[in-house]
Amino acid sequence: MYTLRPYQSDAVKGVLHYFRRHSTPAVAVLPTGAGKSLVIAELARIAKGRVLVLAHVKELVEQNHAKYEGYGLTGGIFSAGLGRKESHEKVVFASVQSVVRNLEAFADQFSLLVIDECHRVPDNQDSSYRRVISHLQSVNAGLKVLGLTATPYRLGQGWIYQYHTSGKVRTTEARFFRDCVFELPISHLLDEGFLTPAHVLDAPLLSYDFSQVSRTANGYYREADLEKVVANAPRATPQIIEQVMSYAKQRQGVMIFAATVNHAKEVLALLPPQESALIIGDTPGPERDALIQAFKQKQLKYLVNVSVLTTGFDAPHVDLIAILRPTESVSLYQQIAGRGLRLSPGKKDCLILDYAGNVYDLYQPEIGMPKPDSDSELVTVPCPACGFNNSFWGKLDDNGFLIEHYGRQCQGYLEDDDGEREICGYRFRAKFCDECGADNDIAARRCHQCDNPLVDPDKKLREALKLKDALVMACVDLSLTAGKNRYQKPQLKVTYHTSDGTDLHEVWPLATKKQKQDVLARFVRPHLIDRHRPFTDTAATKIAAAQHRFRAPDFIVARKQGRFWHLRQKIFDVDDFLSQDRLDALLAQSRGQQFADADL
């Protein structure tokens, strides 16, 4: 019988609380070394119905099964690699490959499906995981699906879930796993002494330059490209391994992650023969098991591998990890480093030697927007629309007040009493569509609403300045006047005041439904300062009375027609796209333009 650590109990409670209210698939995030197997065992023990626990490697199947039977209970194993196919126990631990080949053996109903290392579950409906899930759901439509992982993100996809228990939106796109119901930061385990501290040394002596190696369309590196980099640095490997062995003198167990099979063989040849072994994808199962066992028993000191010992491998005594390959994702980097973070007698820390220039932060992985510069830090920015406290990169002054932040869109969502959710979606920075007025992400190239091409402000300014019949003016203010046209129909007159004292006008007719929709989309939405407060009035007098809620554009572009200048384009939020130097240059260029003798 086990006694759960407080955070493990909290994880179990979080899962139970969620599934009492929801049936959608959920994720619990626990760092490597946090004891996911114990959480799985406890959930399986207290479950009222049958439980199936899936993993992608036999080592995890065996490990999870052993923890469950540590309660004095009996669980089945369904794994060809372990030579057992037992599918009728109340709790079954299985490899996904074995189950997908024998779906007929799982015709009885399960109430809970637990997926270990669930970041491996893809969107592809034809994948092994999704076929197993679909089969189990066809037997029991009310099946609860829980995923556990230390790295809740997937290469090429990003976050594997959509909503976080803190009320944060991770992605606006739907995911198979809807919610993260529990997350424990790795820093908590280190602070409480549940993990071994890691010391990362970046390029301690010599390193491989993988910076010019590009990834394939699916996000991975080509082996031939990696081979070329290693081959072009023939002196690097011997010197690197010499330094690894120097650091390893006072270490218990050393894992070396090589770039390719040939590279791994070269590394192995430089290590002490009686203390070293190599495991690659083609290593036969029995030989692999024997080598891993010898390493765990400290009969071997060095274990070289190529992408095969990142998950499901548990050797707590490992206290030195040498990374001689680029890592495609923060997920893989964390999995590699995680091999050395478990506690073990006589182990004080784990040394991580990175010889490949990987730039990931083990303790605070950057998923989504990367850190803009070294002076940036995480800041809290409340959303003016929903009140959610966003975490963005930003800068504070000496007194701790926010100077600026780099957030684009609110990460919060709203949920009603029926559980229906609506993503806030408020944009702190937006690119407005000239055609329909919709606000878009500042990196968007086409409008999400009308598919109109979106042009960056700097390009708009450069193109306008090239035209002989165009006038570019820096705008400093605007004023609104309600009135009527010569047919006594209502209209709104907008006057733009420029930095050189020139005024330019535009008129919005407001007689028809189409004209009212047009002014809301093309004037109100782009000009509204407090976009979180809806503005739906279309009466000219009411719009003019709310003049304080409307902002002037940074630039206006006018084109000459006959003797007159007509406003053709308004450009907002130039600071989000242009440096100050670039902006000053454009302003100087605009001031150099000469007005024609015309009535503005």
TrEMBL record:
Residue ranges constituting the Helicase ATP-binding domain according to the UniProt record: 17-170
InterPro entries: Helicase/UvrB_N, Helicase_ATP-bd, Helicase_C-like, Helicase_Restrict-Modif_Enz, P-loop_NTPase, Ribosomal_zn-bd
Domain Helicase C-terminal stretches: 240-379
Keywords: ATP-binding, Helicase, Hydrolase, Nucleotide-binding
PANTHER family reported for this sequence: ATP-DEPENDENT HELICASE IRC3-RELATED (PTHR47396:SF1), TYPE I RESTRICTION ENZYME ECOKI R PROTEIN (PTHR47396)
Protein name from the UniProt record: DEAD/DEAH box helicase
GO molecular function per UniProt: helicase activity
Organism of provenance: Salinivibrio proteolyticus
Gene3D superfamilies given in the database record: P-loop containing nucleotide triphosphate hydrolases
